[in-house]
Design a protein that fits this description.
Distance between the termini: 26 Å
Strand content: over 45%
Radius of gyration: 22 Å
Shape: globular
Number of helices: 0
Helix content: under 10%
Order of helices and strands: EEEEEEEEEEEEEEE
């Protein structure tokens, strides 16, 4: 299950002490939806550290916060947050727990929220610190902030791994093609799981042109993939 996670954020420029803590009062912070770039809202100047080559706009530090409760059907699921792009040097917290940091601004990433979440109607607090003050750091205008989409992803304990489907076409002609599909799975259960993976290939009209079934035994907490 994938939920868009781009609305209802709070933003504040500059450093803010304890901004990752749920108890912080952010009522006066700016409300906005993602994607967002605070640099483009600034004044152009050749004196900014980004220089003209970086767009002549300010960088700096910014904080984002979002309060949320889990949607219906989340019980028993593993929950992840996925970011398509944050520029740059980001760190992410859930309910005051640091999930990790990402120095590069041109890459997608995700963190698991499951161990730190409040279930039911209780509110959770996701906080993101973005630091684009170390400039110049790009050969073009980069912007600053959470500049691409964000998603909340919920999976069953046995699920397709992140970026777990790999498709190649090693042999292609005018009449036919060989399509190889490799699917990686994860078993988050504490017992062995026997699973069947069905792969279907459809043509442009939506007609099924090929199907394959693979049986896998996934060890407790283990991984496996179709060949």
């Amino acid at each position: 299950n994938v939920e868009p996670f781009t609305t209802g954020w709070k933003f504040r420029p500059g450093e803010t002490e304890d901004a990752m803590q749920p108890g912080l009062d952010d009522a006066q912070w700016r409300s906005l939806d993602l994607p967002h770039d605070w640099s483009i809202e600034g004044e152009f100047s050749p004196d900014h550290p980004a220089t003209v080559g970086g767009g002549a706009l300010p960088g700096g530090i910014g904080w984002y916060r979002k309060s949320f409760s889990l949607p219906d059907g989340a019980e028993g699921k593993h929950v992840f947050i996925e970011f398509d792009g944050v520029y740059q040097e980001s760190e992410v917290w859930i309910n005051g727990h640091s999930l990790g940091s990402r120095p590069n601004g041109y890459i997608s990433f995700r963190y698991e929220l499951t161990p730190f979440l409040y279930r039911g109607d209780s509110l959770n607090l996701l906080a993101v610190r973005v630091d684009n003050s170390n400039q110049p750091n790009s050969r073009w205008y980069s912007g600053s902030g959470i500049y691409r989409d964000v998603r909340l992803v919920m999976t069953e304990p046995v699920h397709v791994a992140h970026w777990g489907i790999f498709v190649t076409t090693p042999d292609v002609s005018d009449d036919q093609a060989i399509v190889q599909v490799e699917t990686s799975l994860r078993n988050r259960e504490a017992v062995l799981q026997e699973v069947e993976v069905t792969t279907r290939i459809m043509d442009t009209a939506g007609k099924e042109v090929a199907v394959r079934k693979d049986a896998l035994n996934l060890a407790p907490g283990g991984k496996g993939k179709t060949q």
